[in-house]
Prior knowledge:
- Two copies of one chain form a homodimer.
- Chain A has helices at residues 74-77, 80-84, 95-107, 176-185, 207-219, 233-245, 255-266, 280-283, 305-310, 336-348, 369-379, 391-403, 450-462, 496-511, 518-534; strands at 6-10, 22-26, 29-33, 49-52, 64-68, 91-93, 116-118, 124-127, 130-137, 144-151, 154-158, 187-193, 224-227, 249-252, 291-295, 324-327, 352-355, 381-387, 418-422, 427-432, 437-441, 444-445, 464-471, 483-487, 539-546.
- By secondary structure, chain A is an alpha/beta fold.
- Chain A has three domains: 6-201 and 364-442, Ribonuclease Z/Hydroxyacylglutathione hydrolase-like (Metallo-beta-lactamase, Chain A), CATH 3.60.15.10; 207-355, Rossmann fold; 450-546, Ubiquitin-like (UB roll), CATH 3.10.20.580.
- In chain A, strands 7-6-5-3-2-1-19-20 form an eight-stranded mixed β-sheet. In chain A, strands 8-9-10-11-12-18 form a six-stranded mixed β-sheet. A five-stranded parallel β-sheet of chain A has the order 14-15-13-16-17, with helices on both faces.
- Chains A and B meet through α10, α12, α13, β23 and β24 of A and α10, α12, α13, β23 and β24 of B.
Amino acid sequence: MSxxxxxxxxxxxxxxxxxxxxLFEYGKNILVIxxxxxxxxNHMWGVDYIIPDMTYLEDKFDRVRxxxxxxxxxxxTGAIRHIADKIDAPIYGTPLTCGLxxxxxxxxxxxxxxxxxxxxxxxxxNIGPFEVEFFHVCHSIPDAVGLxxxxxxxxxxxxxxxxxDQTPTDDWPTDFTKIGDFAGRGVLALLSDSTNADQPGWTxxxxxxxxxxxxxxxxxxxxxxxxxxxxxxxRVQQVINASYRNGRRVALVGTSMVVNSxxxxxxxxxxxxxxVLLPLDQALGLPNSKVTLMMTGSQGxxxxxxxxxxxxxxxxxxxxxxxxxxxxxHPIPGNEEVVSRxxxxxxxxxxxxxxxxxxxxxxxxxxxxEEQKQLIRMVKPKFFIPVHGELRMLHAHADLAHQxxxxxxxxxxxxxxxxxxxxxxxxxxxxxxxGGYVYVDGTGVGDIGPxxxxxxxxxxxxxxxxxNMMIDVETRELLDEPVIxxxxxxxxxxxxxxxxxxxxxxxxxxxxxxxxxxVSRLEKSLSKFFYNEIRRxxxxxxxxxxx
Amino acid sequence: MSxxxxxxxxxxxxxxxxxxxxLFEYGKNILVIxxxxxxxxNHMWGVDYIIPDMTYLEDKFDRVRxxxxxxxxxxxTGAIRHIADKIDAPIYGTPLTCGLxxxxxxxxxxxxxxxxxxxxxxxxxNIGPFEVEFFHVCHSIPDAVGLxxxxxxxxxxxxxxxxxDQTPTDDWPTDFTKIGDFAGRGVLALLSDSTNADQPGWTxxxxxxxxxxxxxxxxxxxxxxxxxxxxxxxRVQQVINASYRNGRRVALVGTSMVVNSxxxxxxxxxxxxxxVLLPLDQALGLPNSKVTLMMTGSQGxxxxxxxxxxxxxxxxxxxxxxxxxxxxxHPIPGNEEVVSRxxxxxxxxxxxxxxxxxxxxxxxxxxxxEEQKQLIRMVKPKFFIPVHGELRMLHAHADLAHQxxxxxxxxxxxxxxxxxxxxxxxxxxxxxxxGGYVYVDGTGVGDIGPxxxxxxxxxxxxxxxxxNMMIDVETRELLDEPVIxxxxxxxxxxxxxxxxxxxxxxxxxxxxxxxxxxVSRLEKSLSKFFYNEIRRxxxxxxxxxxx
Lengths: 547, 547
């Protein structure tokens, strides 16, 4: 590696590349970009969330000069406690981002006023050998930024999560001037958000939601319930505005929605000039046609307010006939089924449900293909690196870059854990570092691996069977009938015959009196027996008590 | 119930209403429409498939005058063996549908040449008090039909699964003439497929796929692999045609794809006038640029050809750098995540993947909202009953019916298990019959219920712990240290301390020598202990061996 080489390293497993954490390494200096978590896929049984594997950093923690967070979403901030307990370097973010991070660090007892450094879009700061210029981008949370990073090899632009909304709710468009300024200076490499790169066209403006809300609010005779993400502050603003236009007051329901909105009001990201907001207990006293309730649960999460309402288990109020529920969010990939089921359950309770595409009550926070091409045309990078997407989006994004004139050799599609080496002249795909996902389950960080997940996978589909028996240590004979217990395997009350035959099977094998490997022989035989009988493969545990 | 009442009863659980099975009951005469299975949702652990609960029919099997199958898809035919072993009545279907059913009955050793009666679109037959007229509809399998059922209370039209494609691959549009004929006679009630009722506009014609295929085939230098459903015969036709236009030969890969296509060729639904088809082993000998391989696996099923290719475990051939894989299907709801993962894995292996929306390589087989309104306008029913969708689609469909003039009181949105009572004058929502889903797991039909699924759910997320101990029957003292075993709970090698503390906990509780309920006391204490230690709730089994 020549001295003048910048190493760009996205961390994590086979997921969205560089979304949760990315390193810029130059000599003995490391800049960390984002520190987020990933939500588990359905097959990652029992995993609460996933953080990037930081093994690569372990002997280099003292080289980290700073942690820059591009915006306040969980997939960019949710692992902050797992890095803040190891690294002393300051954490940089815009005011809203810092407010959200502060709450996380306080909860983890890692907060310290000196650790968090507020910056604003437009600011420029030096972090080790990097000069970082923050520029505003539109996204589905206020105060998101992209980064212009002047490195010793050249200017690298990182889009952050972004879209090019010309009429965002806060009237603060993506900073085209700054982007033009970068282009004028000459951009060595662009890293850009690929999330929607395989979607044609432009992402609709948030402005179209106002009209959809008005239509839905006008048609509603009863209460309006709007479910969205607790971090989607601009949507709270749109609901406040639409409620005001339609003669309704708004109550925010649920801790995360209330806490985030309070923070946003305090910092000036959320305005309520007409005093539309009021506490829930007061809202519940108003006529239904005068009330909007705003809450979480757009992903069908069972523990969210909407999740509890859908099964009639919310404490303070229930769904009522005549309610209109607006799902102001799209399902996150993998949640489609549970969202669909939640909608059906809400309808069963007599409420009407409005979701995209019935009305455009949500738009994505990520740029689609035409915007992507626009950004590349504006930035005019020499090298292009699609990030923040799964492999398929990155490839679609690479195709878009070709279409707007970036030569194929100047585009690098990489996976998490691959080192990119950037010089003033070249972009090279380097080695892979070990590591991938770190699963967090309960208080366990990294103690769940492939073996435990394989066991859970098998338990999920076929349950387990325990065979417990006492054997005479001298004669090797059964002292009593073996006791067979199962969970998640069959409905026990209807399966007496099956278990009786299994007991006989066990007894006949024990009779052979081959001591060696009796446990594994029994497990194998029973596994075969149950598969032949009922085509299921439970985990089998044979316990031999020698007496 | 007056004598002149037709009872319409969709069977099943909270799923797509009337899709898998529906009954028309008049006096002591029952007509069964469709006999399909449902694929399990992700939370239905280990369930292979689901069939409608037929308890209602149990004392009425001899009243069934016929079973009419609208088309050959699994969700309309997949439960045929479960009804054919109980009911003697003839099964009616078009030639392709009958061919597919015959294979299922043969596999279940229930085939009998007299049971299956082939009809053709345009035919009219009497089944008990019902005169059933079959009319052709476009769908994603050839030879699908809708039904015009003249009942003692009036003419009821059932759309089947349909769309209004003007340029289908087989050039056989939905039979508008017959529909007009029904309208002229006066339609009492329309039952219509709601699957895409919440989607705006029209479903694109299959014809647009030809252009997308040509674009993809032209761009491909290596092999083209097309994955779709084995039943999507028209897509096989389109792939044969596109391959011929682009100088390629086609090999079908995998049993279901080969068997279905053979049947379709034999019955004349699939044409290969230029001898484009050839066996796989011969195709593998041709230059890559001359080969198209067609297979299943569009849903990322691990056991399908494409699923095996994506992880490098296919027997006859592997994915190669330069292959172009076309996913000619949309993910079935609930499969989005696994399809996405499969695409990423294929890309990791160096192949290019083309899917909608990158190119329109698939279109839905179901009518969208404008087509739905069109059909209602054409049929002019007095009463309207949306079917074949989840509750949310049915409600969207009901809204569409209002928009085209069906009064709200004349529309009935019902769930499976609800009896609809139709007279010449009225449509009434009647009682609910007991029953819902019947889960099939291995060879067990209906033995898996909520309790086993709850156990599997808990096992999937936290695994289990067994505590095995020997106790002196006299002194109630432990004779040895309790042995603790676990699966799917923690990585055992890293958890020695945890298990040691659990052992101590057990010993201290046993020391109290309260005999009563020692097992349940231990289970409760350990559950609490593990939750406090590691925030997980495994299933705990305490085994006490008294010696």
